[in-house]
Amino acid sequence: MSSRSRLLPVLVAAGMILAACSSAATPVPTVAPSPTAAPTKTTDGSLPKPELAALKLGAAIQEMSQFAPKLAEMAGIYDKYGIKVSVTTFNADGDALQAMLSGQTDIGSVGAGGLINSQLTDTPATQITVQKVKVVDGLFCSKDIKTAADMKGKSVAVSTLGGTAHASVLLALDGLKLTEKDVVVQAVGGQAVRIAALKGGSIACAPVGMDQATDLKALGFNLLIDLSKADLPYPATGLGGLNTWLKKNPNTALVMAAANLEAQNMIWTDPQKVAGYWATYAQIDAAKALTLVTGSQDQLQRSLRWTLGSFQFTQKVMAIVTPGIMTVDPAKAMDLSYLQKLEDIGFYKKINSPLP
User: Most-buried pick from 114, 147, 192, 244 (CB within 10 A)?
Assistant: First the structure.
């Protein structure tokens, strides 16, 4: 059995855990990888011709903060820049990650944890954009659970073990002075599925985006902790690809980054139009969709940029379940050169996107 076959299940199970920091020491990061994006030849925002005319993108899109890759498809942005993108929506981030690492998709919208962990395998991957850089979930529980003590022995839903929701649960438990041993963590699926399970009573608590707080409170659910106030360096989801794929298709990767940047900026520049797309995708009322779109503006990273510190935080958290991850230089799992290239060629300026 290859190292990839042995490690991939571990990667998917532990790839996205972002909770309380472990006590393991973080290795001194090396210099970030040299830029892989194509050399700058223009300053008017023009993009190079992509090597690929079509590709497959995998993503778990359960909330507005994950919408940019699908929005770019629905709004025709990929087509405008010469790529026919087929977006496959997965139920959880771990599934999208596995699809990318196994070659079922060309590129994925995935979390930093899995990409850092991929450095331990023979299929290392790199993140080139990040849509959200902080925790925005709250831990909501059924009517009879009002305190941390009430949670003991109860079931708490996550998307997949090791996924972003699992990260929020661990962080919430830490904030409530509990541990994972005090509850029963149950993988049920993305946010919509978790909310349905909470309403149906099959689980007691679940991490849900704070943009849903008003609706959940109206239904009688209790908010035990609001993680959005923690302001932690949390790189949730963003475009990532296998190193081999990125090296072979630098222009394609650059155009994908540009399309996602343009789609992300639409959330600020044209929220009404984005709300129409989200209402169609999520099958909800247009007025509610607009509320969710405007509410997400405080959660999202408009420039799609992030810091090494956020990856180091992720690494420390992952060490709780994968101690070997501390041998990895987290800088090797990230490459800001694509976004820097977009700044250099004038693309940020062209679409009126502010820099961080």
Answer: 114
DSSP 162-230: TSHHHHHHHHHHHHTT--GGGSEEEE--SHHHHHHHHHHTS-SEEEEEGGGHHHHHHTT-EEEEEGGGT
Q: Which residues pair with 205 in a beta bridge?
A: 141, 156
The whole-number average pLDDT for the span 180-207 is: 94
Please give the sequence-ordered ranges of beta strands (E in DSSP) within the chain, or none if there are none: 54-59, 84-89, 107-110, 125-127, 137-141, 155-158, 184-187, 205-209, 222-226, 238-242
Q: Is the pLDDT assigned to residue 293 strictly greater than 90?
A: yes
Mean pLDDT to the nearest integer, 297-322: 85
| Sheet of 205-209, strand order | 184-187, 155-158, 205-209, 137-141, 222-226
| Residue-wise pLDDT tens digits, 49-66 | 999 999 999 999 988 889
pLDDT tens, residue by residue, 130-140 = 998 877 789 99
Question: Which pLDDT does position 312 carry in this prediction?
Answer: 87
Helix, strand and coil percent figures for the chain, each rounded to 5:
45, 15, 40
Backbone angles phi, psi at 183, to 5 degrees: -130, 175
pTM over 0.90: no
Structural domains in the chain, sorted by start: 3-133+234-350 (3.40.190.10), 137-229 (3.40.190.10)
Across the chain, which distance is largest between two alpha carbons, in Å? 62
